[in-house]
Specification:
By secondary structure, this protein is α/β, with parallel strands linked by helices. The protein has helices at about 1-10, 25-30, 35-50, 70-80, 85-90, 105-120, 135-139; strands at about 15-20, 50, 55-60, 80-85, 95-105, 125-130.
């Protein structure tokens, strides 16, 4: 209910909105059988009447984020994610609703946001389903 209201407040037409997720690593998808951020993003796009496109890709060889420090997470995600050239055209000039399943340090969200801005996104709204920031702040 809050997202459509926020889009209205910002003057964003749903036809300009592209829902994008931060992808899980291949190993996690193989182990668990799904990517929850992708599933949430697909459903959210349907509910909003927007388009869903998984434009952020992961290269092979990245490490599991869980076991890394905040600095290591940022470097790992920066080195292991990208947007294909053909997808940059789809992002350019669009508003993006960027979905992540959980934010711990903000590294993945920060890197994905930078990728989308470089690809020409008109604006990016970040949405995390859960947060573990308190744990990270206590460290």
């Amino acid at each position: 209910k809050l997202i459509p209201s926020e889009l209205d407040t910002l003057g964003i037409d749903k036809s300009e909105l592209l829902v994008v997720n931060i992808p899980r690593g291949r190993t996690a998808v193989l182990n668990y059988g799904f990517d929850q951020a992708a599933e949430i993003s697909r459903e959210l796009a349907k509910i909003l009447g927007a388009s869903y496109l998984p434009v952020i890709r992961r290269r092979r060889g990245g490490r599991e984020q869980k076991k890394l420090s905040a600095v290591e997470r940022k470097k790992n995600i920066k080195d292991s994610t990208y947007i294909k050239e053909c997808d940059k055209e789809r992002v350019s000039g669009r508003y993006i609703l960027l979905v992540d399943d959980i934010v711990t340090t903000g590294a993945s969200m920060s890197v994905a946001l930078a990728h989308l801005r470089r690809a020409g996104a008109k604006g990016v709204i970040c949405l995390a389903v859960a947060s573990d920031l308190k744990k990270e702040i206590e460290k």
